[in-house]
Amino acid sequence: MGWGTRSAGILLGCLLAPLAHAQVDLEPFLKKDVLQTLKISPTGDYYAMTVPLEDQTILAVVRRADQQVTSKITAGSDSVISNVWWVSDDRVVVSVAKKYGSRDQPYATGELYATNADGTQRRQIFARYGLDATQVQPRAAYLIDTLPDDPRKVLAGMYALDTATPSTRVVRLDVVNGNMDTVATAPVRRASFTVDAARRVRFALGAGDDNISKLYHRADDRSPWTLVNDEAKSGFVEWPLGLSADGRTAYLQAQQADGPDAIVALDTVAGTRAQVLRDPVVDPYDIIYADDGRTPVGSFFMHGKLRTAFFDEKSPTARLYRKLERSFPGSSIAITSGTRDGRLKVVRAWSDTSPGDFFLFDTTTNSADLIFSRRSWLDPAVLAPSEPVTLRARDGLTLHGYLTRPRDRRDAPMPLVVMPHGGPFGLFDGWEVNDEAEMLVRAGYAVLRVNYRGSGNYGRAFQQAGARQWGRTMQDDLTDATRWAIGQKIADPARICLYGASYGAYASLMGVAREPDLYRCAAGYVGVYDLALMHKQDSRESRSSRTWTEDWISDDRASLADVSPTALAQRIRAPVFLAAGGKDEIAPQAHSERMEKALKAAGVPVETLYVRTEGHGFYSEANQRAYYTRLLEFLSRHLGGAKAK
């Protein structure tokens, strides 16, 4: 070895020497929370809360007087309680979803369960299979609204899963014995419904095999359905958020030709529209309702931090939110539920450094008492904040994201992990505690999360800009964000890696294939790497799924080799770490195995972790610990950060 080569080796060794950080304690990030959501009963006597376990989320009913659990609902492994309703003073109904792995997005099974608060009359009130005429047919249901005049009944939408594009109707469902009768039928397939204050079914939104959205309206139960919006003609989607108390004004979220969605008021008699709320950058994030739980009065917007805006700043709901925001400065505030008399409200306060606290707010005394702190072992004073960032892609498109870095290291370039989110379409990174970002920060890295084109939250045009752009302009956005971080002296250009899960794993491997000189390593967790294989699998599911695949990925399967990391392994020079689950049906382990084989054939260093019992993201704490230990070891070797304890 010559002097110059030896000196370069010494210099590289110094650059990659472990940073001055203690080993990372994984326990705070692996420990399960005690609860996720909490709603108070109409009388204020009980709380209904969702409780996460290792491979499922259950419902627990707790009596306020003595904090005793009085009832539970469980739906088995891989199940999630996706929504909770107090349908009367003492009866709770929940909907169930399935989630096959920690990175999977829950999908509704259409099953409904109910229990009395004291634990009696606990049963499934709507099953996946039911008798239709003389045959047992697959079906699904979701709750639309309660019926205050008949606390034993609710309105539910019911899908008859007789085809890949199901028909839908509204039923009046008995929450004790599960009996039902039809109230309304839909003029469109795969429909969702919106009712007015009198519980009349007024709107139906759905789509056929072509995935083209259609919105219908009717004046009352006896009137015919009329088409309000056809995406094929207007070029955008409108969906109902709710109606005014008198039922005349309907509030719609409406996509725009350019820029973010707007909230518009539709006069259902005159047919005229008027914009009532729109942020210049982002879509409505979540709708804020009045005390009745169904009249829209405002919205949250996730632009950097989360903010609230109201149709009328003098409304009672707006004044209450402003009062609460003054009481919890620096936090986002949401009222999750309240008693029927309006006296007690359950308020959640959270931020990018706090998982959230639930308070019971008394509107008569203006006092707030802590009910529960989520993940109380995470100290907001220690967690690193998510700094909103804005940059421009090479074609001029504005991109938004978040930078997380150690509180005490912001004066010099440092090793960077670029962490693209999964999805990819419609999902986006927001202002919140991100466990993986915090874990990586404690290892000594800055973390950049970018909402590349195709992400949600920034309007129809921004999302559509990602159509058929896997590995192309979507990937350019991540490259441009990386170069921006270098130009801003945030990142040390010699120490940058890509890491992501699902689509984020795909983007990480595509990044080192397209930019072999920019990144030192890449890690992919439960990723897809062979797009032709993915295209083939997804196209088999249904006609609507095939349409989606052709619209958003490609209508030419043969061309996908150009943007498949498995076919580009010869371009990759950076070491790679792959992890996958043997039970993963979204990103089957075969993708990682093909990627591993291609990398080995190309002579690229590759490490793997396969767990046959896990799905799309590991559930088991032991498997999660093993995975993150391996991930931090891998990054430490190539970026120089700390390892796990």
How would you characterize the overall build of this protein?
This protein has 645 residues and is of the alpha+beta class. It folds into three domains: 33-185, Methylamine Dehydrogenase, Chain H, CATH 2.130.10; 194-283; 382-529 and 566-639, Alpha/Beta hydrolase fold, catalytic domain (Rossmann fold, 3-Layer(aba) Sandwich), CATH 3.40.50. 19% of the residues lie in helices and 37% in strands. It contains twelve helices and 36 strands. Strand 2 and strand 3 (57-63) form a beta hairpin. The longest helix has 19 residues, at 621-639. Mean pLDDT is 92; it is low at 1-20.
Domain count: 3
CATH class of the largest domain: Alpha Beta
Radius of gyration: 26 Å
- The number of helices is 12
Largest sheet: 8 strands, mixed
Strand content is 35-45%
Biggest β-sheet: strands ordered side by side in the sheet: 29-30-32-31-33-34-35-36
Mean pLDDT score, rounded?
92
Summarize the topology:
Elements: H1 3-15, H2 27-30, E1 38-40, E2 46-52, E3 57-63, E4 68-73, E5 79-86, E6 91-98, E7 107-116, E8 123-126, E9 129-132, E10 135-146, E11 153-160, E12 167-174, E13 180-185, E14 192-195, E15 201-207, E16 213-217, E17 226-230, H3 231-234, E18 238-243, E19 249-254, E20 262-267, E21 273-277, E22 284-289, E23 296-303, E24 305-310, H4 316-327, E25 332-338, E26 344-351, E27 354-362, E28 367-373, E29 386-392, E30 398-404, E31 414-418, H5 435-442, E32 446-451, H6 460-464, H7 473-487, E33 491-501, H8 503-514, E34 521-525, H9 531-539, H10 543-552, E35 576-581, H11 589-601, E36 606-611, H12 621-639
Parallel strand pairs: 31-32, 31-33, 33-34, 34-35, 35-36
Antiparallel strand pairs: 1-2, 2-3, 3-4, 5-6, 6-7, 7-8, 9-10, 10-11, 11-12, 12-13, 14-15, 15-16, 16-17, 18-19, 19-20, 20-21, 22-23, 23-24, 25-26, 26-27, 27-28, 29-30, 30-32
